[in-house]
Write a structure and sequence with these properties.
Blueprint lengths: L5 E5 L5 H11 L7 E7 L6 H8 L8 E4 L5 H17 L5 E6 L18 H17 L9 E5 L27 H6 L13 H12 L8 E6 L14 H21 L8 H13 L11 E4 L2 E2 L9 H14 L14
Parallel strand pairs: 1-2, 1-4, 2-3, 4-5, 5-6, 6-7
Antiparallel strand pairs: 7-8
Length: 332
């Protein structure tokens, strides 16, 4: 049995980027010093994650665990089990928590069982709650929280121009309750509120007496065909992603490693880099935003401190966070 110093947790391990990250982690030197814990909604049907894990010679030292990010109750159940194992010494303290679990609804708006718009409920609120619940199990000296980001968080990014044409659409920020519950009928911009989380979380960690060395790093993996994220897209979109772009993506990535389109393999390496690299980013990178492996700048709205504070307070209410749920002192 290997003696691990830390735990590497990856959510959404059964998707294209997730499975690639599992494989790259297992092939990396970090897998010799960190236990891999790969979360999926249902381990019994997580074929991609199981294939990636069982293809490794040291598969028995790492494991796939259930974590349902589609409901807040599922997040609490999964987080409680991870916390229990860390407390019992079954898992070492969490060295890196990679928030990769996400949904992308290509056929109209959907809502979670809790009543939230699905992008808000899963991509933002579930991940926000998971972090707060797992802070008690993080390595307080070297822990890193890795947020899988997207250029979609910035409505003024030129790459979003084909979807966002009117000036009144060039904003994501609205009242948090509206973003969480409102049915959207005329705004083509999907809801990606995760940008507001990274800065406020880092600020609150920095003011903590015992968690100030925990880093928050965001990584935009670029657009990746063949990941399964838009599995409910139209047949034409599926054809373009899988057969047209998918056939040339390796060449595109080789020519422009941090370009708009990349292979899951390359982006998986960027997630590992963000999780463990101290040479390029320092030991405790603070609210760092990466476009692939390159340092970049988040959108202006995401950097708005007032928006960050309002979103945090709304998240506390909507996730029903209570005293004792998190070790973060200034959680309210």
């Amino acid at each position: 049995m290997a003696s691990f110093k830390g735990t590497f947790i990856l959510t959404g391990a059964n998707g294209g980027l997730g499975a690639a990250t599992v494989t790259r982690f297992l092939e990396s030197p970090e897998s010799q010093t960190n236990k891999g814990v790969f979360t999926v909604r249902n381990p019994a049907t997580a074929d991609a994650a199981k294939s990636a894990l069982h293809g490794s010679p040291n598969a028995a030292q790492h494991e796939i665990v259930p974590l349902d990010m589609s409901t807040l109750a599922g997040v609490r159940t999964g987080a409680a089990e991870i916390n229990r194992k860390v407390k019992a010494g079954e898992f070492p303290p969490i060295r890196a928590l990679v928030l990769n679990a996400a949904v992308q609804d290509a056929k109209g708006q959907k809502f979670t069982e809790d009543g939230f718009e699905s992008h808000f409920g899963v991509n933002y609120l579930a991940n926000w709650l998971l972090v707060l619940l797992l802070l008690q199990s993080m390595d307080p000296e070297e822990g890193r929280i890795i947020i899988v980001a997207s250029w979609s968080h910035d409505a003024r990014d030129p790459r979003n121009a084909m979807f966002i044409k009117r000036e009144d659409q060039k904003t994501i920020w609205r009242n948090p309750e509206d973003m969480a519950y409102e049915k959207i009928t005329d705004n083509p911009n999907e809801l990606y509120e995760a940008g507001y989380r990274r800065f406020e979380l880092q600020r609150r960690l920095a003011s903590s007496s015992r968690l100030s060395n925990i880093s928050v790093v965001s990584v935009d993996p670029g657009a990746m065909p063949n990941t399964g994220l838009v599995k409910d897209a139209s047949p034409m979109i599926q054809f373009l992603l899988h057969y047209v772009l998918g056939s040339v993506i390796s060449i595109v990535t080789w020519l422009r490693p941090n370009g708009d389109y990349r292979t899951p393999w390359k982006s998986a390496g960027d997630l590992l880099n963000a999780s463990f690299n101290e040479t390029d980013y320092g030991k405790h990178p603070q609210a760092l935003y990466l476009n692939g492996s390159a340092k970049a700048k988040a959108g202006a709205e995401a950097r708005n401190e007032q928006y960050q504070k309002e979103m945090w307070k709304a998240s506390v209410r909507m996730a029903r966070l209570e005293e004792g749920d998190t070790v973060l002192e200034n959680w309210q």
